[in-house]
Amino acid sequence: MAAQDIAPPLLTRDRLDEVEGWFFAADVFLFDWLLAHQRAQGICGDLLELGVYKGKSAILIGFHAADGERFTVCDLFDAGEAPDDSTATEMRVYYPTLTRQVFEANYLRFHRRLPTVIQSSSSGITTHVPERSCRFVHIDASHLYHHVRVDIAAARQLLTEDGIVSLDDFRSPHTPGVAAATWEAVLTIGLKPVVLTENKLYGTWGSPNDVRDTLADRLATHPTLWGVTEDVAGHTLLRVHSR
Ligand SMILES: C[S@@+](CC[C@H](N)C(=O)[O-])C[C@H]1O[C@@H](n2cnc3c(N)ncnc32)[C@H](O)[C@@H]1O
After folding, report:
1. N or C: less crowded end of the chain, CB within 10 Å?
2. Which CATH number goes with the domain that contains 99?
């Protein structure tokens, strides 16, 4: 066997911190917990991430794709692919060193195969992913209101009955468009908020009770995170904080 035929060993998930990105401890825990909880409940389905940057959260999601579950990611990767001037500006300001090659190289340090990669605006994702096929959708692409509300509508169409959507940056001062689109979805199209962290809101169009209450029990013994429930606009959600 030639030396170039021997695949290098894969990195284990505890090396995720070596990948540059915006994906923090509480959400790493929640992605792992929610995706494993779905499996334990017999909930199957595909996985989708809108906005991968250099792959930090995608790499973690990839560890949860079971046999037969497809993992799709979507990113512009290049300002030249942006659908409008405001997105091109956002790309140049926040992601000047991003390329598709960087994402793919990072991903292949942890996994033998790439997910299905769609290089285009997230607004077209429903033409690539079948309706009602996904158990988990992570929305972390554009921060602009008119794009995020389209991404949320896509998640609603693509999620299975008890599927979960995670919305990044739903409360950051530099992303008011995400906040507006997120709470608009809660108030007008039936998104039920289940869990909040400092960075992400997790919701469902299915039943929130089992997942919220089981997670609250788990957090009661967690060494670094704690949770408290709060009623907001007719929904009981779980706020998760660091100790
Ligand atoms: C905040 S980063 C994603 C962070 C990543 N999930 C992580 O864990 O580090 C946002 C990504 O969304 C991409 N993006 C921005 N606007 C987009 C759009 N309209 N459609 C698709 N991708 C977009 C950017 O290229 C960037 O890679």
Report:
1. N
2. 3.40.50.150
